[in-house]
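In the design runs reported in the main text, the only information available to the sequence generator was the tokenized backbone. The following block is the verbatim input for one such run; it is reproduced so that readers can re-run the procedure and compare outputs position by position.
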């Protein structure tokens, strides 16, 4: 997932600053202790006195702490200027540190007790890629390559070659992993591409074996070739754990949620089939729009699948699920409005109850913003001689907070409006879509997300292209008497049997 869901910049509080400072300081100490612990394990194998001799030379530990402090400071500066919203939530920083610490422990253990060339150096890159985005993964890959160098340099890993080689191999493995695994939603494809991650390690072993006499060159080549596979295997094991702990959404999770066998989707298919069909069309439109403005297309598709999930609580009150009888004909406009607008809150509650990612639950709540429900508002005005509070007949909001939520709002409204059109020519669809977007702009529905006029125009054209493709004109089939045709076919069959 190489795209970030665009959000408005949130204001920092004193609490946010304090939490981040604590997270960075605590994890700085943890990583330093891990490197020191690695040096203790390595030196203890030879002689415990060597470890104390290592500590007695204050310059070496001091250099380690200084270099680590620089790395951690660079990380803080990077996120301060690159993505303040990401940094604002201290949980995000803790997630990245925990990924790095777990990977550091695994790399040390594999290098110490199996082989130095089997180490999964690209583990941080690939985990960060699927839990955040490609740019963050690139940065964390560089940072982890430096940390691995510090582990080899100050942890006494016993590498026969120069420690700085770990930076080159680690960086190269991570870059290959990021570009090969980006937008891969199949575990089989991950396994098939895993071998390419090992190429820099294999190349380095080959170059080294030409220059010096390599005692275990066969073992080194085998371990180097398997390092990519080990990276992917560990990734598959660790990803669900990090998803659960930090409530993150990976492409694998989104792909699972759009499976028609998923619990809520299956329930919608059985109990609200009209809503499900509407959601499928909206998902196709939303995905195309997200691609057009460089947002996360799989996330947009998944949010569209679930945006109307709240309707399964009272499916018969929504037009797409009704056959002939409309229960609203026996209700007051006020009660009908309360039922209709409750589907956003019901959807949010269902999503949270079923442990769906919060970003999907938020779209359930935001996809109608604070728009008025015009049909029942107009009906109420006629019954009360115009004395009606429009807020009473409007959705409770909030307005869309992200571009994905804005896309779902537009796609949802345009699909419903176009379906009711008698004339679905491109010109008429374009007119309808522009009207819907203009109404929402006039009512300030996009004021709380960072969507631009340019992006709205791109979305309009994308929506029109998709809707005209869905509701295109069909060939009028001629009226033919099938009885006559069937009689002729039967005669031909009888004649064929006689000839046989």
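Verbatim output:
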């Amino acid at each position: 997932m190489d795209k970030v869901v665009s959000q408005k910049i949130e204001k920092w509080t004193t609490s946010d600053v304090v939490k981040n400072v604590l997270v960075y300081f605590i994890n700085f100490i943890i990583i330093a202790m891990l490197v020191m612990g690695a040096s203790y394990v390595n030196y203890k194998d030879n002689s415990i006195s060597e470890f104390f001799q290592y500590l007695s030379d204050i310059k070496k530990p001091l250099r380690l702490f200084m270099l680590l402090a620089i790395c951690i400071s660079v990380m803080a500066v990077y996120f301060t200027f690159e993505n303040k919203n990401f940094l604002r939530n201290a949980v995000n920083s803790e997630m990245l540190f925990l990924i790095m610490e777990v990977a550091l422990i695994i790399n040390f253990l594999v290098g110490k007790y199996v082989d130095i060339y089997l180490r999964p150096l690209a583990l941080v890159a690939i985990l960060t890629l699927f839990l955040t985005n490609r740019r963050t993964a690139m940065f964390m890959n560089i940072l982890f390559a430096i940390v691995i160098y510090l582990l080899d340099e100050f942890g006494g890993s016993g590498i026969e070659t120069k420690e700085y080689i770990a930076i080159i191999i680690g960086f190269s493995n991570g870059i290959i992993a990021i570009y090969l695994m980006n937008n891969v939603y199949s575990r089989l494809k991950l396994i098939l591409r895993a071998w390419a991650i090992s190429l820099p390690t294999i190349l380095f072993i080959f170059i080294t074996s030409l220059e010096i006499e390599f005692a275990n060159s066969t073992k080194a080549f085998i371990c180097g070739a398997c390092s990519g596979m080990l990276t992917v295997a560990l990734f598959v094991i660790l990803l669900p754990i990090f998803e659960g702990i930090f409530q993150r959404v990976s492409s694998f999770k989104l792909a699972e949620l759009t499976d028609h066998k998923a619990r809520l989707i299956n329930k919608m298919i059985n109990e609200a089939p009209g809503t499900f069909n509407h959601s499928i069309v909206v998902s196709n439109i939303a995905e195309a729009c997200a691609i057009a403005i460089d947002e996360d297309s799989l996330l947009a598709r998944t949010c569209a699948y679930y945006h109307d999930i709240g309707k399964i609580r009272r499916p018969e009150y929504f037009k797409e699920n009704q056959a002939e009888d409309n229960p609203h004909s026996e209700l007051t406009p006020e009660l009908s409005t309360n039922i209709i607008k409750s589907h956003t809150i019901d959807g949010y509650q269902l999503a949270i109850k079923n442990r769906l990612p919060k970003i999907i639950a938020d779209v359930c709540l935001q996809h109608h913003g604070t728009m008025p429900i015009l049909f029942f508002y107009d009906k109420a005005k006629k019954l009360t001689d115009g004395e009606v509070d429009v807020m009473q007949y409007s959705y409770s909001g909030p307005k869309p907070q992200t571009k994905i939520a804005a896309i779902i709002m537009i796609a949802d409204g345009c699909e419903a409006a176009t379906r009711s059109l008698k004339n679905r020519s491109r010109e008429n669809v374009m007119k309808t879509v522009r009207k819907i977007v203009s109404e929402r702009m006039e009512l300030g529905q996009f004021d709380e997300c960072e969507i631009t006029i340019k992006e709205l125009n791109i979305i309009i054209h994308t929506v029109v292209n998709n809707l005209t493709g869905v509701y295109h004109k069909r060939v009028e089939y001629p009226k033919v008497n099938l009885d006559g045709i069937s009689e002729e076919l039967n005669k031909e069959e009888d004649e064929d049997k006689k000839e046989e």
